[in-house]
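Quick entry between incubations.
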Amino acid sequence: MKIIIVGVGKLGAYLAKQLVDEDHEVTLVDNSFSAKEDIINNLDVNYVEGNGLDSNILIDANVVNADILISVMNKDEQNLMCSLIGKKLGAKHTIARIRTLEYSNSINLLKEDLGLSMVINPEMMMASSIARTLNIPSAIDATTFLKGRIEVIALKIKEKSKLDKVSVDSISKKFGANIKVFAIERVGDTIIPDGSTKLLIGDKIYISGTRKDINAFLKVLGLISEKTKKVLIIGGSSVCVYLSKILIDLGMAVRIIEMGKERCNELSSLLPKALIINGDASSEKVLYEAGIDECDAFVSLTSIDEENIVYSMFASLQKVPKIITKVNHIKLNGLIEKSNIDAVVAPHKVAANQVVRYVRALQNRGGSSCLAVYKYDNVFEMTEFSVLNDFKAINVKIKDLKLKKGILIGVIRREKNIIFPTGNDVIQDKDEIVVINKNKKLKDINDILE
Amino acid sequence: MRKKIVYKFIGKVLIGFSSLFVFPILIALIYKNSVIPFLIPQLVSLLLGLILNRIKVNDGSLFAKDGLLIVSLSWIIISLIGSLPFIISGLCDPVDAFFETVSGFTTTGATIFNDVEKLSKSILFWRSFTHFIGGMGVLAFVMAIIPLSSKDKSMHLLKAEMPGPSVGKLVPSIKKTLFYLYFIYLALTFIEFILLLIGGCSVFDSLLISFSTAGTGGFSLLNSSIATYSLFNKIVIGIFMFLFGVNFNIYFLIMMKNGKHILKSEELRVYFFLFITSIIIVFFNTYNLFLSAFDGLLEAFFHVSSIMSSTGFSIGDINIYPTSSRIILLMLMLISACAGSTCGGFKISRLIIAYKSIKRGFIKIIYPNSVDTIKFEGKKVPEDTVRNNNKFLILYIILIVFIMFIVSFDGFSLETTINAVFTTFANVGLCFEISNFSLFSDLSKVLLSVGMLFGRLEIFPMLALFIDLRKK
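Done. Structure below.
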């Protein structure tokens, strides 16, 4: 598809990379590319230098034939206007980033009247992603799919875990819960397991099942102590506001440490149920005052990555069960994975993944279509397909399928039944399936076959 | 660590390159020449490529320096392998063979053969075919045909090989851009081929002349170059030499039916203006040498087109021209035609940017506080590009003077020495007083070959190689 991205900031650049990896034709528009040489030299994209609100510049970027115009400039107003102009000039779909707290209430109005196909609010998307993770104790990442019927959570296998040296096949029997291991991250590598793969201490595993089964499984493992009740958040950013709102609605107690006096006042009026503490989180006293030693979860959301990492390390010393850290800029792979920090989130990544998902859904209309894609840091992805009879291996036993390497059929949904397939199951017409794949882009369901 | 990425990519280039030997082998089979001279380099290229391609590299994107090194090293290695057919056929010694091959790939067209008419058909084909490959670029060819990972799709490679002060893409994806460029290239070549057939050339001659024109090379099949072909064909070749000197972006705009942008192109306007004025001056300067005014006009048109596009075909004796005409032709050699075409030389767009930057300099002297951004083709030219452009101009002159100094020890006349260096450095290939380069010393031949590579790759990639070697 032909996609134009207006505004090449962190989100714009990350989106461009993701979309190019999906073989889309991407054109970037930005006021200046002088500081962005790296992007235009190393990404297979075209670029137009100029103001994205100038219709001549958009025409130069070939907006007339564009399938999607994604507007991610600094200001919401610019993005709205750019989408409007783009739509008028002929872009088929427009996506705009709107992140101002006040605007987010009127997003639905804006969406309809301005003909926006999608509104990106990275902070809100990140907040709900964090909330999902907090809602399942001991998971370090969580998503749902097949319309919420099953969940996928990520777990780290810690010392003395019962899962050590257990083979993937025997998990369901051994722990009495109908779950399946989708992927294993082991020392920087990702393994798509077959039945005999054994789990080891230090692995990060992605398991799926219904909410009930997952809870039962976590209980047997002794990982489920209690629900997350007390959450300590550092930094009163907009993510913090969105997140607190969701958490308070879920019945959790939220404490926020924020440095700015003014901001504290704002926060307290926005979040009357939260406890706002005005102080510097780099002081031990403030953290103890906020009760770091008794909270169930610690979320560090300040604007400085280094601070977030340091606070999280301290929280880890205090044995806080779950620690989530926002890391925005730092791109030193492996550094954070080696530390004790459970989950790292960046708003632009969360938002970009959702856009990529949306773009794929647009692309696959007709045929066995791809319904949704869940990417995990470019290492592996889970793709949801609805099967029609154009699938070449319908009613063939899975063990007889010639699947490509690194591909696993994770779940089959047949009407109301959720099946974790074994070699003897078959894929039928009108099923919905989830495919786990590594290093490959699946555009069509038949791509899974050799 | 970075070295590995460079070597691996060169491996891919060599694998792609080996496939090209299929064509001369086919010709050798048709004309019952020996296939050995082409089979051996093909195997050498394939094996070396496969070995290099086995190198395991860590993930990582290409840096600018890697791009430059890949391009310069690939061109040198390919020139070495490409000279094997001449050596194996026993036609010349290795230095001559290297000179001839570099002259082919860089689309220069300067030859060391005294009598090209004696060469076998397959060797003649190989000479012209090297023009055809080199015209668009060896890496461009490889990147268009082999599957690339996302990190290989780097603009650093394209920038290092494609001529012009700033290289852009026609469409977002590199593969598609290269596809369009090759489509234009092949289509123009095919049209010329058909027209030459109509004009009475044999299939073989038409094909080879089309290859040579397309790459703006200049290797011909006859010692008299184009002089004995029909009038119609002379005009066709003259026009196509001009057309291959036009920036291919212009043809892309025509394909996309954006015709009105073409007239706005500054570079095209200047190209056309220089072309017409040069023809007029040369014509009035030389017409009394010819029997009819038409003959004079034809020669002026053909030679201006040939030299300006850096092709180097000729239809008459330029040595009888008055000095002023020869000076014009020498200047045109250096200026050459548009960026983004297959021609050599300094390129008109660089000249325009240099002119604008000099003009700005003068205004700055008169109004010290004036601020002026340089615009070209309606777009702002980044200051880096302006600086590189001027650096390029200075380096160009320094290198030419240096090579001239060394070549002068061969004892040729002043004009021949100057002309020989200009014609190789600017990838033209036509030399006024001598018909071929076999008389130069081995040192001069190697130096001129390196000069041709410097000229074709526009100095910086080759310079990166030398800087890298010196550091070691």
